[in-house]
Write a structure and sequence with these properties.
By secondary structure, the protein is α+β, with helices and mostly antiparallel strands. The protein has one domain. 54% of the residues lie in helices and 15% in strands. It is built from two helices and two strands. It has a two-stranded antiparallel sheet. Strand 1 and strand 2 form a beta hairpin. The longest helix has 20 residues. The structure holds zinc ion. The site of zinc ion has 8 residues, from helix 2. Zinc ion binds next to helix 2.
């Protein structure tokens, strides 16, 4: 019985650390929707707002690379 409780707590803690809870850029807590980006070789989580900015930044970089 006690072991079952221990395992349950362990699962809860594991789930807490497995799910991203804040945006890498602005630090805003993630509620429902989030986007993953590979930044500095690591998987980072961005909120929808920062994702839009990131997409803009990446497309701008690609554009200047091609035409600049
Ligand atoms: Zn953000």
């Amino acid at each position: 019985m006690e072991l079952a409780i221990f395992l349950g707590v362990l699962l809860l803690v594991g789930a807490y650390f497995a799910t991203p809870n804040s945006c890498y850029v602005c630090g805003q807590s993630i509620k429902k929707t989030y986007y993953t980006w590979k930044i500095e070789g690591k998987k980072r989580v961005l909120c929808p707002k920062c994702n839009t900015q990131m997409e803009r930044k990446v497309s701008k970089q690609a554009f200047s690379k091609k035409f600049g």
